[in-house]
Amino acid sequence: MIVDVCSFLPVEASYRARLLGWAAIPGYFRMFAKGLSAFCGVPEEEFRRRALGGEREARAFVEEVAAARGRTAGQFVAMLDEAGYGRAVVFSIDQETTTGAPPLDPRVLAQAVAAHPGRIMAFVGLDPHKADAARTLERGVKELGLHGALLVPFLHGLPADAPACRPIFQKCAELAVPVWIHTSVNWSPSHPMELGHPLALDRLCGAMPELKVIAGHGGWPWVPDLVAAAWRHPNLYIDPSGHRWRYLAAPGSGWEMLLRFGNSVLQDKVLFGTDWPLMPIGMREIAEEARALPLKPAVREKWMGGNAARLLGLPV
Asked: What does the buried/exposed string (b/e) look like for 203-221 if buried means 16 or more CB atoms within 10 Å of the residue's CB?
């Protein structure tokens, strides 16, 4: 069974929230014009002209893309079926305090989960600067049927182990749900790269060993540090989504240590994620790249879904 722990719910409201969030990060529309033009379904030239053409034009462009690209949750499940996926974890991001971008209403995620409970799971994005963040998580899990939390430290302007995040993590531990934390480089020159460093997770997991943490995007370029931290902490998992899986086996890519120890002592700690649809290939091709890695057959099945099933409490 393939379990994707980092995917996108392609409904209209989700497209709108995601694009407005990216637009609020300095430099992101320009840096990722090629990938985002594909995400928006337009030529790169058109994306640059409209998304970078001023606030009014960009907002009109976002609304057009959301209306044109939006699909139903049922259509998303059909895409999962076609690609051979068993389940996908979708998510929202809340960066409102620092960037002003409005977050996706958690009820949008809940509607998809309720309509397809055996196929779609969801992590709610939380803003640690908001006093009600922990309550939002509790309501999401207990009342809306969501499955975990998501934080993006570089967007919050805080390291993952900052005191402001602690109420969220305490609530995650109380509810026995995981938190996905962006742990990798970011591409906005105005946001410190160090806020994605995995040593913050080492400190966090040392202080809260009961907390289940997913290091989103695999810790690159600090992969050795994340491998060491995951080796140290039983509840720290690694999701290399957002990167082409074939590069994990490419010499000099920086992933060598994950591939080496992920095939042995950390074989139960690596999760499969796509960051679909930001990759330049489709869901099926992403899974094929992951399956082609030089892993032991039993380890490959753990990476593709077995580890995530155990972490998320799913039937294996």
From this structure: ebbeebeebbbbbbbbbbe
User: Which parts of the chain have pLDDT scores under 70?
Assistant: none
Q: Which two tokens stand for residue 188?
A: 């906005």
Amino acid letter at 300? R
Number of Cβ within a 10 Å radius of residue 254: 17
Using DSSP's 3-state secondary structure scheme, residue 217 falls into helix
**Both tokens assigned to 191:** 């946001």
In this structure, the number of other CB atoms found within 10 A of the CB of residue 252 comes to 7
Roughly how many angstroms between the first and final C-alpha of the chain, as a whole number?
8
Whole-Å CA distances, 12 to 32, 72, 155, 263: 21, 8, 23, 39
Q: Which of 248, 198, 250, 241 is nearest to 219 (CA)?
A: 198
- The radius of gyration of the chain from alpha carbons, rounded to an integer in Å, stands at 18
Q: Is the previous residue joined to 277 through a cis bond, with omega within 30 degrees of 0? A: yes
Residue 295, helix vs strand vs coil: coil
pLDDT at residue number 19: 95
Check: CB of residue 304 under 8 Å from CB of residue 272.
yes
pLDDT at 31: 85
Tokens representing 225? 């540090």
Q: Are 12 and 67 in contact (CB under 8 A)?
A: yes
| pLDDT for position 315 | 82
Q: Cα-flanking dihedrals φ and ψ of residue 4, to 5°?
A: -95, 115
Q: Which pairing describes strands 3-7 and 87-91: parallel, antiparallel, or unpaired? A: parallel
Q: What type of residue is 57?
A: E
Identity at 302, one-letter amino acid code: K
Distance of CA 313 to the CA centre of its chain: 19
C-alpha distances in Å from residue 290, one per residue of 47, 217, 247: 30, 14, 10
CA distances from 126 to 100, 114, 184, 258, 269 (A): 14, 21, 18, 29, 24
Which amino acid, one-letter code, is at 217?
A: H
The residue ranges of DSSP E strands in the chain, in sequence order, are 3-7, 87-91, 120-125, 148-151, 179-182, 213-216, 236-239
